[in-house]
Amino acid sequence: MSNVTPWKIGAVIAGPAFFIAMEAIGNVIAIHAWPAYAAAFPTRAFTLPMLLARQASGVTLTIVAGCLVSIIARRDQLAVLWAGIAGFSIVALNQLMSAEWLHYPLWYRLLFLSYIVPGSLLGGWLNCRAASALTPTSDSQRRRRVRVWVHGPDR
Domain map of the chain by residue range? Predict the structure, then answer.
């Protein structure tokens, strides 16, 4: 079992906080850049392309938040999992306690809930994979990675 450190606790808090902040900023940008979205936003009368755009931004932000948690928690996948569970809990409680979610179709709400934890884990996995690919452990590995990067893999 991994040790609980302030970095990991901060990471679990930072992931969902990052997602919420970026989602709010994305809404402001969409309202100013997309007149039809701005007209639909007060009543949440979104069209299918608007709902799909919101889902696409949600998936992207979830993956980036998982990567951020992994960076802060120093590649600890358990912290990424906990951040995903925290994000899921926040969204699920919001759906249960807020009448705003009644404006969205059921498929939209279920799809949104379905990718929060897997998307977070994917972001953490991508960060760990990129970090391990970029962090050689010896000079010979470093030279091999540079050679592969410049000349391509051995056949």
Answer: 6-151
